[in-house]
Specification:
The complex is a heterodimer.
Chain A: H1 9-21, H2 27-38, H3 44-56, E1 60-64, E2 77-81, H4 83-100, H5 104-116
Antiparallel strand pairs in A: 1-2
Chain B: H1 9-18, H2 21-39, H3 43-59, H4 68-83, H5 85-114, E1 126-132, E2 138-139, H6 143-151, E3 156-171, E4 174-184, H7 188-192, E5 198-199, H8 204-207, E6 215-218, H9 220-227, E7 237-240, E8 243-250, E9 266-269, H10 273-277, E10 295-300, H11 306-323, E11 335-340, H12 349-384, H13 386-394, H14 399-433, H15 450-474, H16 480-485, H17 495-529, E12 539-544, H18 553-568, E13 573-579, E14 590-594, E15 602-608, H19 613-616, E16 621-624, H20 629-633, E17 640-644, H21 645-652, E18 663-666, E19 669-671, E20 674-679, E21 694-697, E22 708-713, H22 717-731, E23 737-742, H23 744-750, H24 752-786, H25 788-796, H26 801-834, H27 846-872, H28 876-881
Parallel strand pairs in B: 4-9, 6-8, 15-21, 17-20
Antiparallel strand pairs in B: 1-2, 1-10, 1-11, 3-4, 3-7, 3-10, 5-8, 6-9, 7-8, 12-22, 12-23, 13-22, 14-15, 14-18, 16-20, 17-21, 18-19
Helix pairs in contact in B: 1-3, 2-3, 4-14, 5-12, 5-14, 5-15, 5-24, 6-11, 12-15, 12-17, 12-24, 14-15, 14-24, 17-24, 17-26, 17-27, 18-22, 24-27, 26-27
The chains are: A mainly alpha, B alpha+beta.
């Protein structure tokens, strides 16, 4: 059974990041994770607005942490992947994988043409 | 342990202000944490990173929450104003008039006083050097003397002489035309920092003393207008006053010489001046006593002041007089004087200052009225909206939120206000300024630029804010609870004085404006009624100058004889006469004459006139006679002069003047003519001043041609002038006709400033009065609305309509009278400031003041009339139910 709305690409990255980071899944870490792993520069604002959208669809939940000195006395907001969110993510991942099935080699060859050109 | 690095404060502050509340804390914390991490790897990179994060983060929140508050405020403001279109309209109009008038007048004042001469480099370092004597006459100086002066003045990095020369140009592609030309010394263009646009400028050799180079440089506008910007004009030959010159270059667009009031079209070497002016051959520019350069422009050396330059120049001047006593005999009576800036004739300054003073006065009045009006409107509005404000505050809105709403409202009013201001500027341009300013020459570019619009918007916003804030400061404190309960009175405590004060101010200023307009009208009427001393009806003035053609004396006489014949042949012409200057203009030439060798010579304006001059102009003869045609036409110099009354009085007192001999220090030595007549005085075109001493001489050969032709015709000038003009032009194809206009045109030009001022006062004053009336109306209407309950009770208790009307109008009338009293005070100040602009009127002119007050009362009654009528229709039952 499919969910009502598919996940956007950035939303998928966010969810994966939250999943990876587990207990350490708060704004700064999420942003850095995506930036380092994917190699794309991401603004904090984009992260937060994206997480807001996921929150509003109950795919993730949030809870507050303690303030620390290094944050100038400000609190952290941690995020946790909800079952609903994991299911959506799995579905997205499966969709892509299904479409990619058997054509990955062709894809890489074509990409190589572009790269070597 | 080193302290924790902090991220860039400004970026953090911006984020803190603009981020939505729900993310603000966490996001800022994240950024700070990461900043500290990165700071360890490089402080500069960390800061850069923080800034880029700040900017990209903000852009990730498109409109949603950052801008929403401002947009919401704007929307609320718009809605509120739409519900009160009358208020909005009046407020916008008031802003438009106030800001528009200020913008326009400041633009004009800036141009009149400060406009730098265009196209020159660093105009603030340029100065004008005049050679003046104690009576403020100025004279010319010779090339050699200027060179020496320049050398002896280290405070000036350059000093260059130049002078105007009348040029009639003709060429293969150019019909004969008069051009305004300047003859310039070496270093002229370098001093001004002007390069060539096409071709080249003069070389030092070409401009040197004694040079025989006959080359000319055109200004860009002359090249465009006269030659159609044809590149072929370069290298072409132009006959200037008969001498062939080669055009070698064009100056860049915008540069038009150093005179503010006239546009130079052509530059020639100073050493060609004598040839162009057809002076006697024994004079040329290599002589030290040939003082033909009437103007000198200089540039201050770095760090030097005009006073230093002047001191050095005067010291050098004295050395020159001592070293060359014979050649510099005339120069001994004069001293160099330095004036900062270029382009303004020092004689013109008083007129300019007068104009600017009047402009500022008018602007202040308008601004006052506009500000008071807007302030009052905003105050009333905030009072009316107290209910809504109370609700907002009760629901937790902070003062800041209410204030933000005010700002939004100011913006919503300010933008159309600014647009309206531009409209007002446009109207003022057409109606008031374009008709002419007292300074001749091209008008400033009064078109609307983005800068003007920006200024207007900013000005309007600030004005609205100030006008909105000020009354709020004076307003009573808002008692939220009372207001919510619905009490309509009491919570306005403390605003009554402000409202009434503002209204009184508006009324007073309006009255001052109107009185000002009346005074200027009276001035105009008085000036028009001044008898200039001549009968200018049906008289025309034409000018023609055969001088630049270099005619010999016989040719010159033949030309003028031909001109007279041609004109007299026309049937509508009753009389023709010739003169060296327009009757209204100062001739610009002064001459010294006396009777007693011991006594101080009298300076008098001298003009040359032909026979029939006094009769044609209706100048009454007091003694003796005028000149006769036969005396003039056969070329014998007439050994006679005519004095005007003032001069005769100065020289001879009450004794008869005819037959006496006077000693005249003329242009070439002394002559001793006999007085043959005395005529009545003629006022110069500035009709305010009494006539000075004047001397009339018959033309003396070689001193320059007549130039001015006066014609009296049968009937209005317009009916016969074109035909006469054609007749004159046909006499000699090489000599163009300059002016051809009714003589009264000169008079009208002289009154230009007064007429412009009057127009300005009427237009702006009219608008301001309307606005003040509307403002007054709002105040009265509001008061009546407030007092509805009270009025209802009084009617219920049997008060008749007359009594109700009286009580409403009574207070209004009170305001009006106080306004009138204040208005009188302001008018007195106004008159003092207007000072010399007015003529024949005093501040305490009772008729004017009474009229002003009367008008005010009428306006008050009209403005208060409608609310009063509404008060009469108040239903007492309804009224008492209102709480």
């Amino acid at each position: 059974m499919t969910r009502t709305r598919a996940l956007g690409e950035f939303e998928q990255l966010l969810l994966f990041a939250v999943l990876r980071l587990g207990e350490e899944a708060y704004g700064a870490r999420i942003r850095q994770e995506i930036e380092e792993r994917v190699g794309r520069s991401v603004s904090a604002g984009a992260v937060y607005t994206g997480l807001d959208r996921l929150l509003s669809r109950a795919l993730i939940s949030a809870f507050e942490g303690d303030p620390t000195a290094v944050r100038g006395g400000r609190r952290k907001k941690f995020y946790r992947l909800e079952p609903e969110g994991a299911a959506s993510l799995a579905e997205s991942w499966d969709s892509v994988r299904t479409m990619a099935d058997g054509v990955l080699d062709r894809m890489r060859d074509l990409a190589a043409v572009e790269r070597d050109a | 342990m080193s302290p924790t690095p902090t991220p860039p404060r400004l970026a953090r502050w911006i984020l803190a202000r603009l981020l939505p509340h729900r993310h603000c804390e966490y996001l800022l914390g994240d950024l700070e944490e990461e900043f500290v991490e990165r700071h360890g790897r490089g402080a500069v990179r960390a800061r850069t990173w923080y800034w880029s994060q700040a900017l990209t983060t903000l852009s990730a929140y498109p409109r949603s929450s950052v801008m929403s508050s401002l947009l919401a405020d704007l929307r609320i403001a718009l809605r509120g104003l739409r519900r009160e279109p009358g208020f909005a309209l009046v407020a916008v109009l008031t802003l438009a008039v106030g800001i528009g008038a200020v913008t326009s007048v400041f633009g004009m004042a800036h141009w009149v006083l400060l406009r730098p001469v265009p196209g020159v480099e660093a105009p603030e370092d340029l100065v004008t050097v005049e050679i003046m004597n104690d009576e403020s006459d100025d004279t010319g100086i010779s090339y050699l003397n200027l060179l020496d002066l320049a050398e002896g003045t280290p405070a000036l990095s350059g000093l260059v002489g130049h002078t105007g020369v009348g040029v009639q140009a003709a060429g293969d592609r150019l019909a004969p035309v008069s051009l305004r030309a300047q003859a310039v010394m070496t270093g002229y263009f370098e001093l001004l920092g002007v390069g060539s646009h096409r071709g080249r400028l003069f070389t030092d050799e070409e401009l040197a003393i004694g040079s025989a180079a006959r080359v000319a440089v055109l200004t860009h506008s002359a090249w465009s207008e006269r030659f159609g910007a044809d590149p072929g004009a370069l290298g072409a030959t132009l006959r200037l006053n008969g001498t062939p010159f080669t055009v070698i270059g064009v100056t860049p667009p915008g540069f038009r010489g150093t005179e503010r009031t006239s546009e130079v079209e052509l530059f020639v070497p100073a050493s060609s001046w004598a040839e162009l002016s057809h002076v006697r051959t024994d004079y040329d520019e290599t002589r030290r006593d040939f003082g033909f350069l009437m103007q000198a422009t200089a540039r201050l050396a770095p760090g030097a002041t005009p006073d230093e330059a002047q001191a050095q120049l005067q010291a050098m001047n004295e050395r020159l007089v001592a070293t060359y006593p014979d050649e510099n005999e005339l120069l001994a009576q004069y001293r160099p004087v330095v004036f900062a800036g270029v382009g303004t004739d020092f004689r013109e300054r008083p007129v300019l200052e007068r104009s600017v003073r009047m402009l500022f006065v008018v602007v202040s009045l308008i601004l006052g009225i506009a500000a008071a009006n807007v302030a009052n409107l905003l105050l009333l509005r905030s009072l009316r909206r107290e209910g809504a404000t109370a609700v907002r505050r009760a629901l937790g809105g902070s003062r800041w939120a209410v204030a933000r709403l005010h700002v939004a409202e100011s913006l919503v009013l300010a933008v159309p206000g600014a647009l309206g201001a531009l409209g007002v500027v446009w109207v003022l341009n057409r109606v008031v300024w374009r008709a002419g300013m007292p300074v001749a020459g091209p008008l400033p570019d009064l078109s609307l630029t983005p800068a003007t619009f920006g200024f207007a918007v900013v000005g309007a916003t600030i004005a609205t804010l100030v006008c909105g804030v000020a009354p709020a400061l004076f307003a009573g404190r808002l008692r939220v609870a009372d207001r919510l309960r619905g009490a309509t009175r009491g919570s306005t405590r403390g605003t009554g004085w402000t409202r009434n004060g503002l209204t009184v101010l508006q009324l007073a200023l309006s009255m001052a404006l109107l009185v000002g307009a009346t005074l200027v009208t009276r001035t105009l009427v008085n000036l028009r009624n001044v008898d200039p001393g001549i009968d200018a009806s049906n008289v025309a003035l034409l000018t023609a100058d055969p001088g630049p053609q270099g005619k010999s004396n016989e040719e010159d006489r033949a030309y003028w004889a031909g001109v007279r014949r041609a004109i007299e042949a026309r049937p509508e012409v009753l009389a023709v006469t010739l003169s060296s200057a327009s009757p209204f203009a100062g001739s610009g030439a002064l001459i010294r004459l006396g009777v007693d060798p011991e006594a101080e010579p009298v300076a008098a304006d001298v003009r040359f006139v032909s026979d029939g001059y006094f009769e044609l102009l209706g100048i009454p003869r007091i003694e003796g006679r005028g000149f006769r045609r036969d005396e003039l036409e056969d070329g014998t110099a007439v050994d006679g002069v005519v004095l005007n009354e003032t001069l005769a009085g100065r020289l001879f007192g009450d004794a008869p003047a005819v037959g006496r001999v006077v000693t005249v220090q003329g242009f070439r030595g002394e002559i001793r003519p006999t007085v043959i007549g005395v005529v009545a005085d003629v006022r110069a075109s500035d009709l305010r001043e009494e006539a000075g001493p004047a001397l009339y001489q018959p033309s003396s050969e070689g001193l320059g041609s007549w130039r001015n032709i006066l014609v009296r015709g049968n009937g209005p000038v317009a009916t016969w002038l074109p035909a006469v003009e054609r007749a004159v032009a046909e006499v000699d194809a090489n000599v163009p006709v300059g002016l051809a206009e009714p003589l009264t045109a000169g008079l009208d030009r002289a009154l230009l400033m007064e007429r412009t001022l009057l127009r300005l006062l009427l237009v702006i004053g009219g608008l301001a009065v309307v606005l003040a009336g509307v403002g007054l109306y709002s105040v009265v209407a509001y008061t009546v609305a407030q007092r509805t309950r009270e009025i209802g009770i009084r009617v219920a208790l049997g008060a008749g309509p007359a009594s109700v009307a009286r009580s409403v109008l009574g207070r209004t009338l009170g305001l009006g009278l106080v306004g009138a009293a204040v208005g009188v005070a302001i008018t007195v100040v106004l008159v003092r400031v207007l000072g010399s602009v007015l003529y024949g009127v005093g501040a305490l002119d009772p008729a004017v003041l009474v009229a002003g007050m009367g008008f005010l009362v009428v306006m008050v009654l009209v403005a208060g009339g409608a609310p009063a009528r509404r008060a009469l229709r108040v239903d007492p039952v309804e009224a008492m139910r209102t709480e």
